[in-house]
Amino acid sequence: MEIWLIHIGELLPVDGQTRLFRYGILADMLAERGHSVVRWAPTFVHAYKRQRAEKDSSVKVNDRYRIELLYAKGYRRNISFSRLWFNHQIARAFKRRIKDEKPPDIILSALPAPGMCRVAIEYAGCHNMPVVIDVRDLWPDIFLSIIPHGLRWLGRVAL
């Protein structure tokens, strides 16, 4: 099977000696079992607030596993308009890049990455394939916690 994994927050093999998290472990296991894995991730490293690359890049991990890095300008604070803009940029970059890709058999996309999840759902619908949304975080709903109670209804509308 051809499988796409989408996650914006985990460290990657290109980040050096890092501990594997859920998507890294899954990518390795799938590739070891003969599946082709394309992992979509940003050039921006959420954990360290720095760029991995200054433009879109493709990294071959092995014959069955590659990482597609999507450029987006980073952010300094997790709860900020810069992060909202980052998510918008990354979704646009993903939508642009997948046009030239062979459709996978299935897509697994992690939330928080609302824009990328939306693009994945639209793409899967156009290609009649399954997509699984892995809800891992309530972001961007966390923004509601910094809004005064009387104005949270307005925040919900904005989100």
Provide tags for this entry:
alpha/beta, 25% strand, two-stranded antiparallel sheet, 6-stranded mixed beta sheet, 159 residues, Rossmann fold
Description:
By secondary structure, this protein is an alpha/beta fold. The chain has one domain (2-158): Glycogen Phosphorylase B (Rossmann fold, 3-Layer(aba) Sandwich). The protein contains four helices and eight strands. The strands form two sheets. Strands 5-6-2-1-7-8 form a six-stranded mixed β-sheet, with helices on both faces. It has a two-stranded antiparallel ribbon with strand order 3-4. Helix 2 packs parallel to helix 3 (114-126). The N and C termini lie far apart (35 Å).
The name of the CATH architecture is 3-Layer(aba) Sandwich
Separation of the first and last Cα atoms: 35 Å
Major sheet strand order: 5-6-2-1-7-8
Q: Based on helices, strands and strand pairing, what is the structural class?
A: alpha/beta
Radius of gyration: 16 Å
Instruction: Report on the biggest sheet.
Output: 6 strands, mixed
What is the molecular shape? globular
Instruction: Give the oligomeric state of the chains in this entry, treating copies of one chain as homo and distinct chains as hetero.
Output: single chain
